């Protein structure tokens, strides 16, 4: 999800939120869509999908052997 947000592929709401807080300091973002009920299910699904770009690599984390047994079972 963070990959899609930082790539600004589907929405500019993060940029708009930063503008309203950090730049203009008006705390009045202009969200698109303007109301939560206008967000479609397929828009949410796109945020949780894998990035479709051949130049994009998934983050590969090294294995962590110092985790408790119950945490490893959940990975």
UniProtKB/TrEMBL annotation:
This is 3-hydroxyisobutyryl-CoA hydrolase. Keywords: Hydrolase. One of its GO terms (molecular function) is 3-hydroxyisobutyryl-CoA hydrolase activity. It catalyses: 3-hydroxy-2-methylpropanoyl-CoA + H2O = 3-hydroxy-2-methylpropanoate + CoA + H(+). Belongs to the enoyl-CoA hydratase/isomerase family. Gene3D superfamilies: 2-enoyl-CoA Hydratase, Chain A, domain 1. Its EC number is 3.1.2.4. InterPro entries: ECH_dom, HIBYL-CoA-H. Residues 10-48 form the Enoyl-CoA hydratase/isomerase domain. Signal peptide: none annotated. It comes from Solanum tuberosum. Pfam families: ECH_2.
């Amino acid at each position: 999800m963070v990959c899609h947000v930082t790539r600004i592929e589907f929405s500019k709401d993060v940029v708009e939120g930063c503008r309203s807080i950090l730049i203009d300091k008006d705390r009045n973002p202009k969200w698109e869509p303007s109301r939560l009920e206008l967000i479609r299910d397929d828009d949410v699904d796109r945020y949780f999908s894998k990035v479709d770009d051949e130049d994009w690599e998934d983050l590969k984390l090294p294995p962590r052997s110092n985790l408790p047994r119950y945490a490893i079972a959940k990975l």
